[in-house]
Predict the structure of Homeobox domain-containing protein.
Amino acid sequence: MRDLDINQPAYGGEEEYPMGSIEEEEEEGGTPRPKKLRLSKEQSRLLEESFRQHHTLNPKQKEALAMKLKLRPRQVEVWFQNRRARTKLKQTEMECEYLKRCFGSLTEENRRLQREVEELRALRVAPPTVLSPHTRQPVPASSLTMCPRCERVTAAPHLAPSSAGGHPFRRPGALPVAGIADG
């Protein structure tokens, strides 16, 4: 496929651009770069307006827009390609920033949950300390019962049920834990 340059005339000859200007720029080292097309504000406005309506142009649309702007169809085509690339890059940058924020909040949530798991594991190893509602003295864990919902939440599939009612913390005829409703 032939490599075309928007800044070079298609047939090797110079063309006149009444609505835009062509400026020659110098690279570092003093050698001139190829001429770069500078679009007028009106050309840019019309191109942007067309882009908002259609992100791609069919050949007829491209030809009509090129004639209206006094540009070559290839220049319009390249402008649309570049504009799509800029749009995609901007979208990617926005998604990247969003994902960074999500990653940060998820990382913090993960740390918080890990701390909570460690605290729960520590509570599971140590016998629970519950105060009697009447005497405000610690009640032995062996005299506590759990509501069915708490049993389901705290029951681990790898623990074998004890002979005391199917739960390691439950004893038949034991007192219910104060402040926890059966659920």
